[in-house]
Amino acid sequence: MNSQRPVNLDLRTIKLPVTAYTSILHRISGVILFLGLVVLLYGLDMSLASEESFEELKACLASPLAKLVIWGLLSALLYHLVAGIRHLFMDAGVGETLEGGKLGSKIVIAVAVVLIVLAGVWVW
């Protein structure tokens, strides 16, 4: 039996590097955007169906729950955009070292937080 096998496989106790968190969040934001596209397309369909359904959608979008959903989708979009730009820089050869990757991840998180807060102010 190999004694070099990992002993602790509890994912809640494993300390991941910041680059792993940015990568995981990038994938999660992509899934949220994919699922949110259904909601947005339904809203577009409602807005174009008739004048009455447009007014109904307009009233629905004024509710706090709808604003929260819109802010969540905007947050996912903004994070995914910032992390995607980081990937484009890495494809160009910028920030490929371990230190550069960590710095890039911290910059992605900082810029995304600022943009998400600004989006929240804009939505509310």
Automatic annotation (TrEMBL):
<keyword id="KW-1133">Transmembrane helix</keyword>
<keyword id="KW-1003">Cell membrane</keyword>
<keyword id="KW-0812">Transmembrane</keyword>
<dbReference type="InterPro" id="IPR000701">
    <property type="entry name" value="SuccDH_FuR_B_TM-su"/>
</dbReference>
<comment type="pathway">
    <text>Carbohydrate metabolism; tricarboxylic acid cycle.</text>
</comment>
<dbReference type="GO" id="GO:0046872">
    <property type="term" value="F:metal ion binding"/>
</dbReference>
<dbReference type="GO" id="GO:0006099">
    <property type="term" value="P:tricarboxylic acid cycle"/>
</dbReference>
<feature type="transmembrane region" description="Helical">
    <location>
        <begin position="65"/>
        <end position="83"/>
    </location>
</feature>
<comment type="subunit">
    <text>Part of an enzyme complex containing four subunits: a flavoprotein, an iron-sulfur protein, plus two membrane-anchoring proteins, SdhC and SdhD. The complex can form homotrimers.</text>
</comment>
<feature type="transmembrane region" description="Helical">
    <location>
        <begin position="24"/>
        <end position="44"/>
    </location>
</feature>
<keyword id="KW-0249">Electron transport</keyword>
<keyword id="KW-0479">Metal-binding</keyword>
<comment type="similarity">
    <text>Belongs to the cytochrome b560 family.</text>
</comment>
<dbReference type="InterPro" id="IPR014314">
    <property type="entry name" value="Succ_DH_cytb556"/>
</dbReference>
<keyword id="KW-0349">Heme</keyword>
<dbReference type="InterPro" id="IPR018495">
    <property type="entry name" value="Succ_DH_cyt_bsu_CS"/>
</dbReference>
<comment type="function">
    <text>Membrane-anchoring subunit of succinate dehydrogenase (SDH).</text>
</comment>
<keyword id="KW-0472">Membrane</keyword>
<keyword id="KW-0816">Tricarboxylic acid cycle</keyword>
<keyword id="KW-0813">Transport</keyword>
<feature type="transmembrane region" description="Helical">
    <location>
        <begin position="103"/>
        <end position="123"/>
    </location>
</feature>
<feature type="binding site" description="axial binding residue">
    <location>
        <position position="80"/>
    </location>
    <ligand>
        <name>heme</name>
    </ligand>
</feature>
<protein>
    <recommendedName>
        <fullName>Succinate dehydrogenase cytochrome b556 subunit</fullName>
    </recommendedName>
</protein>
<keyword id="KW-0408">Iron</keyword>
<keyword id="KW-0997">Cell inner membrane</keyword>
<dbReference type="Pfam" id="PF01127">
    <property type="entry name" value="Sdh_cyt"/>
</dbReference>
<dbReference type="GO" id="GO:0009055">
    <property type="term" value="F:electron transfer activity"/>
</dbReference>
<dbReference type="InterPro" id="IPR034804">
    <property type="entry name" value="SQR/QFR_C/D"/>
</dbReference>
<dbReference type="GO" id="GO:0005886">
    <property type="term" value="C:plasma membrane"/>
</dbReference>
